Structure formats: C-alpha cells, structure tokens
Amino acid sequence: MRFLKSDSGLLGVLLVLAITQLIGWGTIGLPAVVGRDLGADLGMSLPAVFAGSSVLYVTMGLCAPWLAKAFARHGARKVMMVGTVVSAPGFVALFFAREPLLYFAGWVILGMGGSATLSTGAYIMLNEVAGRGAKNAIGGLMLVTGLSSSIFWPTTSFLSGWLGWRGTCLVYAAMMLAINLPLYAFVAPRRKITTEDRGEAVKRAPPSAIPRSTFGLVVCVITMNAFVNFGISAILIELLRAEGLAPAQALAFGSMLGVIQVSARGLDFLGGGRWDGITTGLVAGTALPVAMVLLMLSEGATWAVATFILLYGAGSGAMAVARATIPLVFYDQAEFAKAMSMIALPLNLASAISPPLLAGLLTQFGSRGALGLTLVFSCATVLILVWLGRRRPQLAAATAT
Length: 401
Prior knowledge:
By secondary structure, this protein is an all-alpha fold. Helices cover about 85% and strands about 0% of the residues. It has helices at about 1-5, 10-25, 30-40, 45-75, 75-95, 100-115, 120-130, 135-145, 150-185, 210-240, 245-270, 275-300, 300-330, 335-365, 365-390, 395-400.
C-alpha cells in the first residue's frame, strides 16, 4: 500500500477506474446470464448469441491501433470520455434488435467504445499519473475488476427478471452516460508529468529506442498467455468433464478458479510492487505448464484436479497482472500508450479465437488436444520471458530490486 501513501491522488484515480471498469466489464457480460432469452427472442442458437462477445473482442482489437495517437496526443481521460459516449448506443442497438444483424451491430459498437475504455485506457491513465510506478496500481485495479462477474451477473439476473433483457440494456446504456461519463469528465485527472518524491518534475534524457524485436517478444508473450488464459477459462468445465469428473464436480472445481485468480492478484498487489512485470510473469508463468502436465498425467484423480486448479488459478491470476505491466518495463508515458494500443490488437484477437479453437480441439481430440496446445504456448511464454529479462533496461532493472 506504499504507493497510495506516496501519492494520495492515485487513490482517487483508482476509485474512478474501479467503478468505471466494473461497470464496463460487468455490463458486457450480459449473454452469460440472459443468453438463452436472447436466443429465444432473436431466433438464434446459443453459440451464435455468444459469438457477440467474439465480435466485441475482434472489434476492440482492430480499433485499438487507431487509438494510439489519440491516447498519446489527448490523454486517456478524453479518449475514455469519447469511448463511453460511443458505448451507450451499443446497448440501445441491442434493445432494438429483432434479428441477428442488429444484434451483432450492437456488439460492434460496444467493441468500438470498449477499445477506448476497457483495460487499455485504464492502464494508460494510471501510467500518466504514476509513470513506471503504475505497476502496483494496475495490480490493485485488476484485483477489483476481477470481481465484475460476481457483482454484475446477479445484477443482470435481477434486472432482467424485473425489466427483461431489453430493459436491462437500456439501464446499462444509462449507467454509461450517468455514471461513467461524469466520473471521467469531472473526477478523473488530466494528464500530468510524473514527479519524484521531492515534487519536482522528472527530467529524463530521451529514452533509448527499444528494438523492434523486443516489442515483438513482448507482443508474443502477452498474446500467447491471453490465448491460454481466455481459452482455458472458457472451456474449463468441459475440460474437467473430459478428464472424467462428474458434471457437479466439474462445476464445483471450476467455480474455485475465479477466487484463486483474484487471490493471486491480491498477493501480487500486497507485495508492494517489489517485482516488475517480467519477474512476476516468470514466477507465475512457470506454474502453468506444471499444472497442465500434472492434469495430463493424472487421469482425472481428484487430488490432481484440485492441485491443477490451485496452480493454474494462481499462475493465471498473477499472469494477468504481468500481461498489463510487462510494457512498463520498457516504455513510459506516451510510448507506453502507443505500445498498449498496438498490443491490444493481437491480444483481443487471441481472446476471440482461443475459446472456439480449444473447444474444437477438445471435441475432436479430447482433453489432451486442448492441453497439448496450451502447454506448448505456456512453455514458449516462459522461455520468451527469460529472453526479455536479459533485455530489461537498466532503469527497470534498478527499480525491480
């Protein structure tokens, strides 16, 4: 908690982002709760309904690189305000949808707004306030946003039972304009220059250019881990059933995953930012292949499944923080904004592609097919992190000790 004491203004920024990110991520989880109602009203199959989320991620990824200059020129606050205004009509489009075309159009609009407001914009805003010290602040924010489904799934269920899913969409559109927009406009900070403890503006020599190959390695690490995490989370219940667990057992073990992931983020947060993103990634990333090999060799033994959930949950939870903070090791201020915007394209595409691809492997080849691919990606992630550690700039290395 030292970073909050050293900059009380950062606490206000975290409160703003905690509220807006909870609303942003929580509201787009609509299909998880009312997917069957959506399908019945629109004449769509359940997989087609959930394809709306894939459309969202693809759109976010395609739009993100175009926002790089906007984040660097205007700052996160203004870009997130515009993104919030764009997002609200997306829920209105869902309200009016009577056929798949307008339904998917609504998700395209939400993806356009989400590219400016969800995660990437929040991390850029924290970087604007805290510079390279934003690592632990990002971990704190992710600790809160990891609870979005726990808060908004019951909320969506209550609202849809009272107003129907269409009425729920209008409520969520109103929340964007009545809560998120004023918080960004009147409470979120304007971009400022990072300061040292004495309160004096930091005067740095122009940073040496980061090799393009280093940026490519950063992109590979973040994209491969996102592929593993988003894919495994989506198919986890079916994966455990393929390992021989009964449906009730698979659901019980799967329900533990989110709690363990949030707990791992909390441990990283309480660590006070002693490690940079690469070190966190190395420790957390090593747990993933170990967990997968254990599950592959266990033949569904209960103790092994429990150990898998513990290792994978802790590793993937901490790796989520590492994905967001590895760029802080190499980039600062405007460079960080540009890097995060460019990384968002492959990251979101991987998030959209991995669930159906791993589900297909699970169907065709069983659990070994899905686990085999994710094991290869996880091992490659660790090896590249070791490589990146050797390229760590001196400034970042000093702050990590």
